[in-house]
Design goal:
This protein is an alpha/beta fold and 196 residues long. It contains 6 helices and 5 strands. It has helices at residues 30-34, 47-62, 76-89, 123-128, 134-150, 162-172, and strands at residues 20-25, 69-72, 97-98, 155-160, 188-191. Strands 3-2-4-1-5 form a 5-stranded mixed sheet. Strand 2 (69-72), helix 3 (76-89) and strand 3 form a beta-alpha-beta unit. Helix 2 (47-62) packs parallel to helix 3 and helix 5 crosses helix 6.
Length: 196
């Protein structure tokens, strides 16, 4: 079963042009499979992760969801997901935009450590490990939203990561990151907001 997650929005930024933005976390990575924190560590997809990406692409195609533009994090687990989706929906891979602001949260000394070490950490505790702050991710979210708003395309797929994605979606809706649950791998999340 393929689920579409719909988040309700509250107005925060007053942009007039309406767009449809879809967010997708990458497929399962080797770090996900091993339950370790990846962050900026550039790990590939697993075989399952590639199948998840293909399944997402087929869902987009069979649901007739129009995708005018694909934007991806520079990390290979996200880019490979974006490329697999693009292949399925006949979107030219060489026109995928790689945007550095869509990269995953830097985890500092947590990178390479068991994922359970970050479970339940407050933003202050993340900072003690040298991780990127929530404020820095909000700044990146703001820049990325502005970039998306300036694009002429109306239906946009953003392929990124869990921790940044939670902040990005929450920021879109004027909420804090803890209002958005952990994002599943390779699922389409419509981000419907009046400011896009």
């Amino acid at each position: 079963v393929f689920f579409i997650y719909q988040y309700q929005h509250s107005s925060m930024v007053e942009w007039i042009v309406m767009k449809q933005l879809y967010f997708m976390r990458h497929g399962e990575s080797e770090a996900n499979a091993r339950n370790i924190c990846a962050g900026h560590t550039d790990v590939p997809l697993t075989v399952l992760g590639r199948k998840q990406a293909a399944r997402a692409g087929h869902h987009i195609k069979e649901s007739h969801i129009p995708i005018d533009l694909i934007i991806s994090s520079p990390l290979q687990r996200a880019l490979a997901t974006a490329q697999e989706v693009a292949r399925i929906i006949h979107y030219p891979c060489d026109t995928i935009i790689i945007h550095n602001d869509a990269i995953e949260r830097f985890r500092g000394n947590l990178e390479g450590q068991p994922s359970e070490k970050q479970d339940g950490l407050s933003q202050e505790a993340f900072a003690q490990y040298g991780a990127e702050s929530e404020e820095a991710m909000i700044e990146r979210s703001t820049r990325l939203l502005h970039f998306i708003q300036q694009r002429p395309e109306q239906s946009i797929l953003l392929v990124s990561h869990n921790q940044f994605g939670r902040t990005f979606i929450a920021h879109c809706h004027g909420q804090s990151w803890n209002h958005v649950a952990k994002l599943p791998n390779a699922h389409i999340i419509p981000v419907t907001s009046s400011h896009l």
